[in-house]
Structure formats: C-alpha cells, structure tokens
Predict the 3D structure of the following.
Amino acid sequence: MTAPTTDPTGAAGARDARLHRDAPPPGLAEPVRPTQVGIVHLGIGAFHRAHQAVVTEDAALATGDSRWGILGVTQRSASVRDQLRPQGGAYTVLTVGPDGASPRLVGSVTDVAWPAEETPRVLDALAAPTTHVVTLTVTEKGYARGADGRLDLDAVRSDLDALAAEEREGTSPAEGVPATSAVGLLVRGLAARRRAGAAPLTVLSCDNLADNGRVLAALVTEAVDEALPGAEGDALRTWLATSVTFPSSMVDRIVPATTPAQRDEVESLLGARDEGLVVAEPFLQWVVEDRFAGPRPAWERGGATFTDDVAPYERAKLRLLNGAHSYLAYAGSLAGYATLAEAVADPALAAGARALQADAIATLDAPDGVDLAAYAEQLLERFANPATGHTTRQVAMDGTQKIPVRWGGVLADRLAAGVVPAGVVGALAAWAAYVVAETRAGRTVDDPRADELRALVTGAGDAAAAVAALVRLPGLLPGLPGGDGDLDRVVDDVVGAVSQEVSAP
C-alpha cells in the first residue's frame, strides 16, 4: 500500500516551512523509512505517537527491519490525518523533563486514515498479507461497553449490519459503509482478512483496561454472534479461534496536551513547522503478553518487556501510580494547588501519597525484577515534573469510577489481613472533603454520579454526616471482607480524618 505524500519543496524548489520526512531538519537523526505497512493502529492520538510508535521506531533502528510501518487510524476526526499526511507521516516527539527538553523525529507512521472517508482503505490494510499486528489505543470509551461490561450493541449497530452484508456478498463493497466504532471496524477487518485467506493476526490492546486482551476478545466474539448468529458466523468464529490472538499489555507514559507555545518552540529549533508534534515525559514502559499469532516487531529491542503474565504489572500500576495520582488530585485541590507537580512538592501531601503506596505494596506481588518501593518513589518523582501539565481538577474527575479499582482493592485486601489501612483512609478523606467543598461552593463535581453526590451532601445535616454518606455510596468500596462491619469501621475512621479538612456549617 502506497501512502500519499506531499512534495516538501515549493514551486521555486525552496524548502517548505512544513516538516516532512523527505527533508529532515539538520542536526536531527533521520527517522526510519518503513518499506511496507506491518501494523495497523486504531486510535492514533498523541499517546500512541509518543509510546508504541516510538518503541517501534527504536526497534527498527536497532535491527534494521523496515517491515513494520504503521498505518494509523484516527477515530474521532480527520485532524491527525491532516496533521501528518502533509508531513509524510513523520513528526517530532519533544521529551520534557527536569533537565530540559529534547526533540527527535519519528518515522514509523507511514500515513493516517480516517474511517469516515477511508473505511475501504483501512479494511484492505487489515486484510493485507503484510499486516501482522493490529494495536489499539481508543480509550476505555472506545470499546463501546455498557454498564454491565458487555458490548453496547446500539453503539456498533451500523458496523454489525455492514459486517453481515459484507459476509453475505463475500467482499467489502467498493465504496464501503463508513465504520463508526473501533470494535466494529476491527471485526469487519478481521472478517475481510479471513475472506482474503491472509495469514494469522495478533490484535493487541494498549488501553488502560485490566486484562485488556481478554476484554477485547470477548467484545469481538459478542459482535460476531450478534451480526452473524448460528451457522452464519461459524466460519468466522472458527478462524478467530485458530488464527487470531488477543494478548494483553500495560502501557505507561505521561503525554500532556501539546501547546501552541511548544509548537512555536520546536519550529524555532527545527526551522520547520510540525503540526503533528507530541510532548512526553522521559519515562516509558510497555509490558506485553508474549502471545502472538505470527511475526512481530522486535519491540524488546526498543525497550518493551515481554512476559507470560501482565497482571502483576497492571496491579502495581493501578494501585501505586493511579492510586497516588488520584489522592494527590483531591488533596492538592483542597490545598489550593493547580497542578499535580505543585501538590507532590508539598511534604504533607507527599507523605500521604507514600502512606497510600505503602498500603498498596503490602497487597502486591512484585513482577520479576521490579523493586516496588523504588518504583513507588520513582512515580512521585515523575509527578513532580512540571512539564507534564496535569492539573488537579483534571485528574480529580470520575472519582466514583476510579476509587473502586484504585483504592477499593487495596482496602479490601488489607482489611482481610486484619489491618485498617491508614493511607487509604486518608485518600478517602481527601476525596470526601473535596466533594463536600466543591458542592458547598456551588460547583458540580465532574463525575458520572454527580447528581447522587450533590444530593448526599446537600441532604446531610452536617459535614460529618455528608462524609459518612459519601463513603457509604453503593459501589464505591465493593468486596469488603467483613461487609457492613468493615464499612462501619472505615466510615468512622474517614469521618475522623476529614474533620479537620471540612468544617461543619
């Protein structure tokens, strides 16, 4: 598949002001030049371009293997396509840390397609014999799951109808029906690959979902069963079972939104405008379950870790990184800090984060070669990087969805061991105090259950009653081993801890 390109020179032969892979700025190493598309990536936002695409680039540089070019697929709009296509797919990653910023060019992305206008092209790429891996970063919402975790059939209906028609006709229509969902597009591509008789394929989720490979495999199965019930779908189901694998992975890198000032800064450094610029912290981690259906890039040469079991890494990240991140957001906002970097610089808040992490470490099995205490301390150092730009209010959103998995599991495990974890109690106190303070200030908490939270606070007689009602919110702390007795103990401790944060009316 030949990617469209743009001439990097103007009519008079002078270099255009736009970055292009065929005219790399002087002083920077040339990016890789893939000879074909070997990977189709669904959801090519800033995170993928600063993470998996960088590892793919580094693997190609280390091995000289040029087969693993990436066709990116943008899900929501044509913006990334319009940023990268005029640049021949190349872009800059600006790594920002305490010691300054450094740019590098990345060329592993060959082009970007937008399904609203280019679904047939994407289906062809998914079915191509040179494509061996599909990766995804479509965010949790992109998996079109309902509240019960199953596929939201209404959200993918048009793709399922198109899949049924394509299977009946034995081909993808020339014009195609534009894909409207990531899961629907993937399933249609898998069906097209089976019809084309192409080689086995690996589908690798890189989203922040626990056991993301299993989750994605289940959604694909549901889609096929709905679109092609009974014998109608047997051929596709058999092929999926024998020719497609869905390994899990865990990803970690802070990738803040790129600002106009950073684009201007890089333009002054490079002498060329990069509309596809992405910004990232120095740290990068990618842990991949080693379960591939066919060839794959040598990602381990680019820094990835391969393992038989991703779960210990997932749990460590969830409980140590995400757990502390949420705590610092609530406690930092209460203390008047605008960013996580400011919050973690406060010794009292850093001590609270360490207490929460200590509770979490007591519940974790360390992955091979990982020092959990050192990892926890490294996380706080990363949070202190002011260039990441994470605001406390931004991270504080959706608490009722995050707390059950970030703090709830730690709480349940420590209670089962006979310990009331002070760090988790302190975190719950910060969240409850934050909700009370926001509600009393007349602000709506950014949370799917915002109406319930507001009703609990306004209906309570005083601050202590409001805090108790919040901690008792159904679903917030599931699976406590002692049931209501444990919950009562936790509520009492949280009310005591929060009493100095929120004064009674």
Notes: The first helix runs from residue 46 to 50.
